[in-house]
Amino acid sequence: MADQLANVELPDPVEITLKPSSYQPSAADMEEEIDMPGMSLDEIRSTSFRPLTVRHEDSG
User: Fold this and answer.
1) Which of 3, 32, 43, 49 could bridge across to 39 with cysteines, CB 3.0–4.6 Å?
2) In this model, does residue 7 exceed pLDDT 80?
3) CA distance 48 to 43
4) Which positions ≥6 away from 19 have C-beta within 8 Å?
5) For the segment 19-58, what is each residue's pLDDT rounded down to a tens digit?
6) Whole-prediction pTM value?
7) 8 close to 50: Cβ distance less than 8 angstroms
8) Cβ proximity of 2 and 40 under 8 Å
9) Residue 14: in which H helix or E strand, if any?
10) How far apart are CA 25 and CA 22, in angstroms?
11) What are the φ/ψ torsions at residue 19 (nearest 5 degrees)?
């Protein structure tokens, strides 16, 4: 089993940028509904189970 895991090729990392820790959304932003269309199980796996690079806006 370990040999199988060693041969698995991981996708490229996805980069996400977080707002500064002092960020406060406007009242309009808080009221806005977010439309989340249905995703297939494969789409969830491909977006959820992958490496991430996290950057903070306030750190440059």
Assistant:
1) 43
2) no
3) 8
4) 57
5) 888 888 888 888 887 766 777 777 777 777 777 777 887 7
6) 0.33
7) no
8) no
9) strand 14-18
10) 10
11) -65, 160
